[in-house]
């Protein structure tokens, strides 16, 4: 992996000098939100990371390289190009070999961030176990590689939980099986992206960046493979009502089944459909939570460097 990395000069300097760096994913730009909100979001998130004293490193595959830190032109390209491929782990070799434009998921971004020596990675919500796992009606087996990567990569991922379109109970069970440390950030509840509480709890709660950093340092000392998942709920003012979200999800899942959407298209489809059925409120929540995560992630990255 190391041979494939291309650093933005600012990111390289920060890493060499031991200053805090925060990795950011690009699938959320290319496939998670419509234009122009996606481009505004990508720029604002980078700005928030800077305000907190860290250097942003948005990750993407460009010209056969894993780019760690993008120029404004590259952000714009990802936000506008219909050619951008959603890149999970299995897609990396193909997109690299073809020198195509690749927007990296949590799985791919976390893997590249760790190879680059970046400790903290901020996203909106992680992928997980989709509803309808074996034993349930529908019998699909759609488990995001995001979980696999969290189980083997030494990185801290800051997110607003897992999207409530997923099977949250099953997602938490897989995280436990993989040995991922899940920390509630100023909460005892596992958040569901659009909502602050999925009905499931977290094993441990931290109430600030220093406390999170202490756990992350301890995890590193154990030399266990795998990472820490910091779950930071969507701000109260932007959260959607849980019962309403549940109704909208049912509607979105039904439409998805009718249209026969499967595989890697599922998450982008559901995000777009949720925007439609909530009349844009899911997008507003998504924007609010990613910015909040960027602030918290940058603060944790800074606290780690102070330690
Ligand atoms: N969260 C968002 N927007 C997104 C995603 C998550 O707010 O676009 C993306 C992430 O890149 C995540 C991916 O890794 O969805 C999960 O896709 P899948 O379920 O196909 O693994
Ligand atoms: Mn999937």
Automatic annotation (TrEMBL):
Leading EC class: lyase
Pfam families recorded: Indigoidine_A
Sites where the protein binds substrate: 86, 106, 144-146
Binding residue positions for Mn(2+): 142
Cofactor(s) of this protein: Mn(2+)
Active site feature: 25 (proton donor), 163 (nucleophile)
A single MF term (Gene Ontology): hydrolase activity, acting on glycosyl bonds
Catalytic activity: D-ribose 5-phosphate + uracil = psi-UMP + H2O
InterPro entries found in the cross-reference section: Indigdn_synthA-like (IPR022830), PsuG (IPR007342)
Free-text remark on how the cofactor is bound: Binds 1 Mn(2+) ion per subunit.
Keywords: Glycosidase, Hydrolase, Lyase, Manganese, Metal-binding
Description of how the protein assembles with itself and partners: Homotrimer.
Protein family (similarity comment): Belongs to the pseudouridine-5'-phosphate glycosidase family.
Function: Catalyzes the reversible cleavage of pseudouridine 5'-phosphate (PsiMP) to ribose 5-phosphate and uracil. Functions biologically in the cleavage direction, as part of a pseudouridine degradation pathway.
Identification of the protein by name: Pseudouridine-5'-phosphate glycosidase
Lineage, opening ranks: Bacteria, Bacillati, Bacillota, Clostridia, Eubacteriales
Gene encoding the protein: psuG
